[in-house]
Specification:
Distance between the termini: 43 Å
Strand order of the largest sheet: 2-1-4-5-6-7
Oligomer: single chain
Low-confidence stretches: none
Helix content: 40-55%
Largest sheet: 6 strands, antiparallel
Shape: elongated
Length: 668
């Protein structure tokens, strides 16, 4: 997202304003230690919605009444700010055009302060419009709340390289030390890169809902099928009884046809089940009755056989349990004590009895071992018992059904004997049959099939729409672009010889960075020696990221702002105590402090000049190619550098040189 910081500033408690102005492209704030350079990145972060005030304690925090940032987002000008005494609120004011003279203490009227959470949502609206990022409503139900929506705080990870991060070998991104924040940034990157929008998540939710509906309807179909089968099994006996009562020798309508078209069967039966078609002389009912009794006898015999099998198996299980218990109680003698036999006449010792005893002990040991190792049969018996029990239940149900049919026939015969008409019994049986057929109709799947067909059509359209996003492929393409840009950008930096040519790889799926050696070995950042290597990995990656963001234009919601705080500290570590009046004086002091074995200050200055030259060239090229470039703000000690592209370093500093002053002068 095309974003430009106009001004970062502080209003002190006396109402005085301390602004720092910026322009597009590369900006440098240079100065000695303790002047407030590093406070700028912290002020921006605080005004950008951070719940924690990390502005360095000192003159600034002691005297500040208001921190503010004036910026433009796609040429819409806004001023955001924080009052350190009201941490739960933040200032937001939109303006037609920014004029630094308008910024006074009175400008920050209390009516423009709003709760921090509301402020962040409102500010987020300038970068992206996203309300619901749950792909799964089921996951939301389990979680008990909506998934965290993208926050402007996630943008900070792509914009800010603090002093303790810019050359860190253990971390690349700001806020990634907290797993939850890291996971949110990684998960929301597909949104930030414009690979998905709000419609994507609504489509994903609808897909999940419709898929669940299909599964529910399929289960209902299966239930209906089981219900229908159950009722179909009852139709045959009732239909046979109806034909028997009518005295029909042959089936008027086969069971198969009745079950296939229940409604047609009812219409047909209505025509043939009439009084005049009853055959009173037919013995069909008697034959049907005898057939049922014969079937009942067979089922009874089958049930008795199964019951005997069950009793036998149970007895075997009991016997084995008793056998196992006895084995547990059995123990063989560990020692055999047999005295030697002596002949009472010649006093000769005999060992025959001892040898026999030893053989007996060996036999006992072998038998007891075999018993102990014998495989129990209980499990097999129990499995057999389960099968037999199931068969008993099946046969019992069949027997009960046959018995009920016989009872119904006997009941009908009794009613006839009591001078009730045969047709009354026929009508009762017909009503019973029609009730069963109506139940089968109720379980008809035609309506369910239509519902499933309609849902599948909707799912096809949704899948087609979702396929247009292809997030996985989009992330792979984005990663490949970043790797391509890093190869070009990194070639201009002074990596150690063992890492040349630099071959950095980055993945938007894992957010890992590594150097790929010619033999495909991966060297991760933490394993790359030297602070310069770590610095250039950070700079190369973030320049490549913002180049890609710039190419995406308005599709990318990440602001085109990049802070580098103290990037040259790897070359001038002693500059943390830089109190010299000029940068030249500090360089001379640094040269004196260095040992003869260390690299010369001049060599390090050349490396620093190359760093700033590449930053300047980068901004110019992106401006030329895309119409705008990321706004890069570097806060550092370095000054009076000679850039290779002929750009004046002083033009980059743009009056932000703090050697004789700081962001806020000491107040007497």
């Amino acid at each position: 997202m095309k974003t430009l910081i106009h001004e970062i500033g502080v209003i002190d408690k006396q109402g005085n304003k301390h602004p720092v102005n910026f322009k597009k492209g590369l900006n440098v704030v240079t100065g000695k230690s303790s002047t407030g350079k590093s406070a700028l990145i912290e002020i921006f972060d605080y005004c950008f919605g951070s719940s924690e005030n990390t502005i360095p304690k000192g003159i600034i925090t002691k005297n500040a009444a208001i921190y503010y940032v004036a910026l433009a987002v796609n040429e819409q000008n806004i001023v955001i700010g924080r009052d350190p005494d009201i941490a739960s609120k933040a200032f937001f004011r939109r303006v037609e055009s920014f004029n630094t003279d308008d910024i006074t203490r009175d400008y920050f009227n209390s009516s423009y302060f709003r709760p921090l959470a509301e402020f962040k949502k409102h500010l987020q609206g300038f970068f992206l419009d996203m309300d619901d990022v749950d792909e799964s409503l089921e996951a939301r139900t389990i979680r008990g709340r909506k998934a965290a929506t993208p926050s402007i705080r996630s943008f900070s990870s792509f914009m800010l390289q603090h002093q303790n991060l810019v050359a860190n070998k253990h971390a690349l991104f700001y806020r990634f030390d907290e797993k939850e924040k890291r996971d949110q940034v990684v998960d929301h990157t597909k949104i930030f890169l414009g690979l998905v929008n709000q419609k994507f998540f609504h489509l994903s939710q609808e897909k999940e809902r419709l898929t669940a509906d299909i599964k529910r309807f399929e289960r209902l179909k299966e239930t209906n099928k089981r219900t229908s089968e159950s009722y179909k099994q009852n139709v045959g006996p009732v239909l046979s009884q109806l034909y028997a009562l009518m005295g029909f020798k042959d089936e008027q309508l086969s069971l198969e046809k009745v079950l296939r078209h229940p409604q047609d069967a009812k219409d047909h039966l209505d025509k043939i089940i009439v009084p005049e078609k009853i055959n009173h002389n037919s013995d069909t009912a008697t034959q049907h009755y005898n057939k049922l009794k014969l079937s009942r006898n067979h089922k009874t015999a089958e049930l008795r056989k199964l019951q005997r099998q069950s009793a036998s198996i149970k007895k075997h299980i009991q016997e084995e349990e008793r056998f196992v218990d006895n084995i547990k109680q059995f123990s063989s003698p560990k020692h055999v004590h047999i005295s030697t036999s002596v002949c009472p006449f010649c006093h000769t010792e005999k060992d025959t009895l001892l040898k026999s005893a030893e053989k007996l002990q060996q036999a006992i040991t072998k038998v007891s071992g075999n018993l102990a190792q014998a495989r129990p049969m209980k499990a097999k018996f129990e499995s057999s018992l389960v099968n037999v029990t199931r068969n008993i239940e099946i046969v019992s149900r069949a027997l009960a059904e046959l018995n009920q049919q016989i009872i119904d026939i006997e009941k009908t015969e009794k009613q006839l004997a009591e001078q009730k008409s045969l047709y009354e019994s026929v009508i009762i049986q017909k009503a019973k049959l029609f009730a069963l057929l109506d139940t089968i109709n109720m379980a008809n799947d035609i309506e369910l099939d239509r519902e499933i067909k309609d849902i599948n059509k909707k799912l096809k359209d949704i899948n087609k729409a979702l396929a247009q996003y292809d997030v996985q492929k989009g992330l792979e393409i984005a990663s490949a672009k970043i790797n391509e840009y890093m190869a070009e950008i990194g070639s201009h930096f002074e990596f150690e010889a063992s890492y040349k040519p630099i071959n950095l790889h980055f993945s938007f799926e894992t957010f890992d960075l590594y150097h790929m050696k010619p033999d495909s070995e991966r060297i991760y950042l933490r394993s790359m020696g030297s602070g310069a290597n770590w610095l250039y990995c950070h700079v190369t990656l973030f320049l490549a990221l913002h180049k890609y963001f710039a190419e995406l234009g308005e599709k990318c919601s990440i602001p085109s702002i990049l802070f580098f705080d103290q990037p040259t500290q790897v070359y001038f570590p002693n500059f943390n105590r830089d109190n010299a009046v000029t940068f030249e004086d500090q360089k001379k002091l640094e040269a004196v402090q260095r040992a003869n074995t260390e690299r010369s200050v001049d060599e390090d200055v050349k490396a620093v000049e190359n760093l700033f030259s590449q930053l300047s060239i980068y901004c110019d090229e992106l401006e030329k190619n895309n119409g705008f470039s990321p706004q890069i703000i570097v806060t550092d000690h370095a000054d009076n550098l000679t850039l290779s592209n002929g750009i004046s370093f002083d033009s980059l500093v743009n009056k932000n040189r703090w050697r004789t002053r700081g962001l806020i002068e000491p107040i007497s």
